[in-house]
Amino acid sequence: MVLQLDGTLVTVALPTLAHQLRVSGSSSAALLSAYFGAYALLLIPGGMLVDRCGVRRVAVAGLSLFLVGAASGAVAGGFGLLIVARFVQGAGAGVVGPAALAGAVSGFPPERRGVPLGIWGAGAGVANLIGPLLGGALTYLFGWRADWWALVPLGLVAAGAIAMYVPASRERERSAAGRAPLNRMVLTASFVAAITFAVMIGPFYVIEQYLQDAGHYSALAAAAVLAVVAVLVAAAAPVAGRLADARGERLTATTGFLLAGLGLALLGTPGIRLGSAVSFVPLAALGVGLGMLFVPTSRAGLNSAPQSSHGRVSALLSLGRLLGAAIGASAAGAVLSSGLSASTTQQALLVACAACVLLGVPAACRLGTRQTMIS
């Protein structure tokens, strides 16, 4: 949850930061690139460390590195030092990420992992919801450095909770750490994760920009519209966890893609105006559909590998999400560069709908097929 808060807190603070440090808006985006670049580079090594050293030890070490970066960023005297601090934060996040997902199912048998993964997914959804609000309030009241300082006590609480409640790994669980975790199910789950985040990031960005540019919404009002979707994502994740435990990943993920595709198809219909009361119905379908996708993806990948490989499986799933987010953001940027209008917005949403139906549904149908639950 702390990692999700970090992204939204910093993004909200960027305009104020750029003004006070006298850098351009495009230059301030380098802070995001430094963070996500380091995050991606450290995911696989972080997953290997989890499998070799255990969730608790690696998570605390990664959070410590993350907190060093956060505190350094809060006191950075210049933009260059701030970029270095963000790189350190990203490196810590790359180590923590696989530990967080692997730790979410630690101690649960394969057939009951949907429920803890649902809680994990709901926590991420809540973080994405309150992050912009908290970041906006902190930046307005205390300046952009407060967003970095806020991460320090939050990270300390998370590290304390991990040290207290996450059990130390047993030697038996690490004995097979050298086995390769890559298999067909892990690849399929990573592909589904990539589609999910591409479908989420791209349309969200296009919708938010359209509401501000064409709908004349304020940034806060546009964020409030999408907050409805975030609430439904968080609410649907625990439901998806129980459904995945009861009926398997295939039904859960297929339902999620169909609901998300239906919502995008309706939003792309010329008769529905974004931001109107009617548009909240397809937005609700989109939110519930996306919320149904996080749990079955992680459950299928983790259940297809022994627990001694869960760190590396988690890293591969996270890489899929990062790749999908990058594709979605690039596609949204291409739409915006060609000129945002009602027509281009509808076309972008329909392309995302096609990705759900033509790519997502067939991939979801392969989750759980010939699957062996490995504890």
Task: Give your account of this protein's structure.
With 375 residues, the protein is mainly α. It has 2 domains: 1-166, Up-down Bundle (Growth Hormone, Chain: A), CATH 1.20.1250; 182-375, Up-down Bundle (Growth Hormone, Chain: A), CATH 1.20.1250.20. It is 80% helix and 0% strand. It has 15 helices and no strands. It has helices at residues 2-21, 25-28, 30-53, 55-75, 79-104, 114-142, 145-165, 171-174, 184-213, 219-247, 249-267, 280-291, 294-303, 310-337, 342-364. Helix 9 packs antiparallel against helix 10 (219-247) and helix 11 packs antiparallel against helix 15 (342-364). It is globular and about 55 Å long. The chain starts with a helix and ends in an 11-residue tail after the last helix.
Give structural attributes.
mainly alpha, 15 helices, Growth Hormone, Chain: A, 0% strand, 375 residues
Structural class: mainly alpha
DSSP helix count? 15
Total of domains:
2
User: In the CATH hierarchy, what is the superfamily of the largest domain?
Assistant: MFS general substrate transporter like domains
- Biggest sheet features: none
Count of extended strands: 0
- Identify the quaternary structure here: single chain
Alpha carbon gyration radius = 20 Å
